[in-house]
Design goal:
The protein has 394 residues and is α+β, with helices and mostly antiparallel strands. It is built from eleven helices and nine strands. It is 24% helix and 18% strand. The structure holds protoporphyrin IX containing FE (HEM).
Length: 394
């Protein structure tokens, strides 16, 4: 859990543009930036232990690798408990800037840069453990817009490894894969990014590769509203949540052909400030009933925002998107998109109705195609000496 001390540890003050250099942080002028201060953030840490895994609610880091592992054939319940003990211990050390026991490059562990490691279980892992699984822990229903590829989908054990420094991420991935390799094989790795630390002050809502502010309407971590949307309340997974990962290809060449008005109409918000068409600021409440002089809705009926929105308070999720930008293949000019990531207490009740509506109608579907999909259970956090997953596997 992030208390007062934790906030300082997260560098919240700097993330949200508060004044004052934190104690001990080195400062210096960024070349060519008229005296802007560059603060060292490599030693910033996020507490690992607590009722929830820390990577869900922490302010989004700049880099993330998503690592899906499949269990080897003969892995059973005892092996899984042993595996999660080892990985939890490694993750707890790495996130605090301490090398795990078998680290051959301990220097790389010393700059965690707000590293978090979030573990998530697929349905097969829980079956192998003979553990109880929530009913929603299964692949999403098939949607008409999907063009899913197995190399970006599913996974028995998925790790979200995120930090403000890519070396911290790469090193943690390497150490955790090493720790797991006798019992698992790597199914897929997806790498995502947001703005680099320090690129924007204050660090506001991130932009996707269409240039849109993406993540405006979201519950705020640390509020009762967030807790209600995200955390599972009862049963062995209480304090945990669900994670939906959708790899969504974005057709940047098609998007290039649109004028600015058409781009903005696709969501119902302006590109510069992210304000809804019926307001002037990013966080203004959109007026979905407003019509223009001809009687047409100001926020278009087929726009992504209107279609994603629901009057049903159950249908809300916490989104934390990352961008991807890989080397083009074949005739492609770009190979880019979004690693869409959402957390919610119940996938069937909260996520599926939204995705169903977007599948039926969403103008953004013209330029976006889901190519990967995973549904996972994020177990609660653990205390020192415990391990992630103990309430499910124990
Ligand atoms: C590449 C794919 C996607 C892009 C580019 C995208 C982009 C956006 C943008 C620009 C907004 C408006 C600003 C904001 O509130 O963040 C938005 C809102 C939203 N999106 Fe997406 N989105 C994508 C996929 C999805 C998916 C797959 C879902 C869920 C199934 C989703 C659910 C939502 C929700 C719930 C909102 C807030 C709606 C509201 O105003 O209440 N989006 N998205």
């Amino acid at each position: 859990m992030v208390g007062g001390g934790g906030l300082a540890a997260l560098g919240i003050d700097r993330l949200f543009g508060g004044g004052g250099a934190p104690g001990g942080a080195a400062t210096g002028a960024v070349p060519g930036s008229a005296g802007a201060a560059l603060e060292e953030f490599g030693s910033d840490t996020v507490p690992f232990h607590g009722p929830h895994q820390a990577g869900v609610a922490v302010p989004t880091q700049s880099h993330a690798s998503f690592l899906a592992l499949d269990l080897r054939e003969d892995v059973g319940a005892d092996d899984l408990r042993r595996l999660m003990r080892v990985l939890t211990d490694d993750a707890a050390r790495l996130t605090q800037g301490l090398p795990p026991l078998a680290d051959l490059e301990p220097e790389l562990a010393r700059t965690p840069a707000r590293l978090t490691v979030t573990f998530a279980f697929g349905p097969r892992l829980l079956r192998r453990a003979g553990a109880e699984a929530p009913a929603w822990l299964r692949p999403l229903p098939a949607f008409g817009i999907d063009r899913l590829r197995p190399e970006f989908s599913d996974g028995d054990l998925v790790l979200m490894i995120a930090a403000d420094d890519e070396i911290a991420v790469a090193h943690a991935v390497r150490m955790l894969v090493k720790g797991a390799r006798s019992l698992t094989t790597v199914r897929w790795v997806q790498r995502g990014f947001n703005r680099s630390y320090g690129a924007e002050h204050p660090r506001g809502t991130g932009r996707n590769l269409f240039g849109q502010l993406d993540g405006t309407v979201n519950p705020t971590p640390g509020t009762a509203d967030f807790d209600g949307v995200v955390w599972i309340e009862d049963g062995p997974a209480a304090g945990g949540t669900s994670m939906v990962i959708r790899r969504i290809h974005m057709d940047l060449e098609g998007w290039d052909l649109l004028g600015r008005a058409a781009r903005e109409n696709s969501v119902g918000r302006t590109l510069d400030t992210g304000a809804p068409f019926t307001g002037s600021g990013e966080f203004d409440e959109p007026d979905l009933r407003a019509t223009d002089s001809l009687g047409f809705p100001v926020i278009p009926a087929e726009s992504h925002m209107r279609r994603a929105r629901s009057d049903n308070p159950d249908e809300r999720i916490f989104r934390r998107p990352y961008n991807y930008d890989e080397a083009p293949t074949g005739d492609e000019v770009s190979n880019s998109g979004q690693i869409f990531l959402s957390f919610q207490a119940d996938v069937d009740r909260q996520f599926v109705p939204i995705q169903r509506r977007l599948d039926e109608l969403d103008i953004l579907n013209e330029w976006t195609t889901p190519i990967g999909s995973s549904v996972l259970l994020v177990p609660p956090g653990c205390t020192e000496g415990g391990y992630v997953g103990e309430t499910l596997l124990g």
